[in-house]
Amino acid sequence: MLRGKLLREVLLMNYRPDIDGLRAIAVGSVILYHFDVWPFTGGFVGVDVFFVISGYLITNLIVKEINAGEFSFGNFYIRRARRLLPAFFVVLAITFYFGVLVFGAKDLKALGESTMYAIFSLSNFHFWSIADYFDTSTKLKPLLHTWSLSVEEQFYLFWPLTIVLLFRLPRLVAPIVLALMSISSLALAVFWIRSGDGVTAFYLLPARIVEFGFGAALVWIPRFVVPAFYREMALVSGLGMILASVLLYTEETPFPGFASLLPCLGAALAIFGGMAPMSGIILRNPVAVWIGKTSYSSYLIHWPVVVFASFMSPPGVFPWWKTTLLIGITFGLAWMLYEFVEQPFRRRRWRFSWAAATGILAALAIVLPAGSAWSSNGWGSRVPPERKKIAQVGGMRSSCGRTNPSVSKKIFYCQKWSKKPRDIIVYGDSHAMHLFSGVASSFEAEANIYAMFFGGCAPQVGNTSFTWRVPSQDCVRHNKRMMNVLKKWRPSTVIVSNAARGDPEEMAQATNELIRRIAAFGHEVYYIGDTVRPGVFLDRCIAVPDYLLDDKSMETRCAGDPSFRQNLLAYNKTMAQIIPDYIDISAVQCPDGKCSYFLDGKPMFIDDHHLSAHASRFIIRSIRTKLMQKPH
User: Fold this and answer.
1) What are phi and psi of 121, to 5 degrees?
2) C-alpha torsion sign, points 543, 548, 552, 555
3) pLDDT tens, 187-246?
4) Residues 567-591 as b or e (16 or more Cβ within 10 Å = b)
5) Among 135, 150, 128, which Cα is nearest to 199's?
6) What is the mean pLDDT of residues 396-409?
7) What is the pLDDT of residues 74-125, one digit of tens each?
8) Which is deepest, 65, 216, 316, 356, by most CB within 10 Å?
9) How far is the C-alpha of 305 from the C-alpha of 98, rounded, in Å?
């Protein structure tokens, strides 16, 4: 049993091996999750465990130095800079310059932009601001993981001052204020999630303060002797909570909010019981401690490894041997960063002037080229002209034409109006919008063509009982408004379509309900199923430099993800069995189950799931005979 004095020393000591062991669990969970290793579907909670650890360590450090009369804002931020910036700058440089070798113009421009935001600790704001339906796939963002580092660095900006101010208040007030801050943070996260704005809750610091608060609360726990049994129970229970989160949570789990409480409470209990004599060996064994010591570097480097390996490989999940190899490479690079970058900067006592000069030069070596790539459209001259030519295809909006002066563009985003007595309305999400070019091309001679479109917003949401994840209130309002428009519109032909979402049986039942509602307004209604998407950005797969990626590699890299093909063909088959007169365009794209992603030597998709204009025209032309044949 630890006596009070020894327990106090353990809680306040500069180094605790069990915390490195907890870091190992956190970073291991994240890495296994990002490499799609089953069953670690909730491995993203490792970031939340890191936040709890930071809340404890930083608060404990500040409190100890304040009590000793040694706290200095300058020293605090110098230590943070020496701890975080050297490896961070090295990984930024490696990532950017490797991107120069393999990324096309669009992706290098985006990488240059995200590099600039990362330098200034604003990655979370950047990725939050671009996180919409047309956003680039996460597998094309090598610096996406830096959002959590920005959140932590923003925490460092205000937390020391907060603790200093709290120390000027009566002793019992500080923990009460911290508790209120945490409760407010949790309430804000829950509010954002329930309002359909989970992206804001995920990326921004206010919703994450509660997680740092779990760690900070440990510093205010009264220092008394805790029997070993209770420490054992705390540690085992805490690790169990983290493990449950890692194994049971998925991307569908509304997060952070209430769901974050389980891993955060688990992390706090694990810190509290980390020095337990028996079960503590789980965290204090040499392997766990080594992984924990290198966890910052392994977190920094792992996501660029995932992104570039995915970009340079055939689409789909990595085979087990490749996943094992890449995880080994990740830890090998992390060890090198730890030994040759992190440690030298920690051990050496740099004069402030030398440290500042070195930091400024390192930042400039990254900022100048990254800023140039961002401002000059990704240095497109690196890409061979013939590859650029193949990748150039018209987008969804290229067929919008003359607008009806009596109709608001806020209702009909895209129009092709020519005073015809007949109207065709295309209604749905962006997978309806990408059919507009084909509908306009095939029917503009006989009808006015209108599109009612909201990206990422299935028309069933808000109009039927169908829900998918937490529906955006903007989406619900849009769909209700569009139904009111259709209710008042003269009898027309309405073509409904949307991306495959959720369970196909639930989607099909909701679609039948939607068709009946629209038909009740006097319209003819047709439902067109979804395409079989390639799962890779075809234009960005093709229009890349040839430094490392030759033409032969593109035959496998740009072939489409087989898992997408299998899943979507099965999805469409189920829809066709439930929806009467379902128009299956996957039969056009995938005769005999073999799907095409290129048409006349050009990509059929402008990204990883939206049809190009020429593919849209081809598909609607192919199914024209199935359209306009029957009234509902």
Assistant:
1) 60, 40
2) negative
3) 999 999 988 888 999 999 999 999 999 999 999 887 666 788 889 999 999 999 999 999
4) bbbebbeebbeebeebbbbbbbbbe
5) 128
6) 78
7) 899 988 988 999 999 999 999 999 999 999 999 999 999 999 999 999 999 9
8) 216
9) 11
Kind of pairing, strands 414-416 and 448-453?
A: antiparallel
Q: What angle do CA 530, 430, 626 make, to 5 degrees?
A: 40
Q: Which two tokens stand for residue 100?
A: 């120069």
C-beta separation of 342 from 71 below 8 A: no
Three-class secondary structure of residue 196 per DSSP: coil
**What confidence tens digit (pLDDT) does each residue in 431-455 have?**
999 999 999 999 989 899 999 988 8
Closest CA to 400 of 450, 328, 327: 450
Say how many CA atoms lie within 13 Å of 184 toward its Cβ: 8
Spatial distance between the Cα atoms of 519 and 503, rounded to a whole number of angstroms: 24
Task: For residue 368, give the amino acid letter.
Answer: L
Q: Which residues contact 225 (CB under 8 A, 6 or more apart)?
A: 1, 2, 3, 4, 7
Annotate 73-85 with DSSP letters as a single string.
Answer: HHHHHHHHHHHHH
Between CA 227 and CA 207 the distance in angstroms is 35
Which residues, 6 or more positions from 408, have their beta carbon under 8 angstroms from its beta carbon?
Answer: none
Question: What mean pLDDT do residues 61-80 have?
Answer: 91
- Type of residue at 272: F
Q: How far apart are the first and last CA of the chain?
A: 78
Are 301 and 95 spatial neighbours (Cβ–Cβ below 8 Å)? no
For residue 226, the model assigns a pLDDT of 74
Q: Which spans in 385-542 are helix H?
A: 385-391, 430-433, 436-443, 473-488, 504-519, 538-542
**Residue 157 pLDDT exceeds 90:** yes
